[in-house]
Predict the 3D structure of the following.
Amino acid sequence: MYTLDEIQKTREKIERSMQPQLAHKSRRRVERRLAESLAAATSIAQGSALVMWLGNGDEKSNLDALVTWTGYTLNQLKLEANRQAIPLLLAELERALWAWEDQSWH
């Protein structure tokens, strides 16, 4: 039989071990919301045309690729995943899309 103290310590240990995973999931959720805002601001179409340009190539949609791009860009620019990052992300995304368009025409 376990004592109440042992149960409490086990619970605390489990909670501590889950914190990094929960923080990662929370960040991914915010990255997705940021990507959705960027997609709306730039009128990125549905479909998968940008998967190879913005994503890793295994995403299913432009939005999924934009989520990947958003996480990568936040890390590259050392930005926190929050609404203050939107203007910088938007500027970077516009540069990336211009580069894609430019390459498409050549």
Q: What stands out?
A: The mean pLDDT is 90. The helical segments are 4-42, 51-54, 62-77, 86-104. The longest helix spans residues 4-42. The chain is about 75% helix and 0% strand.
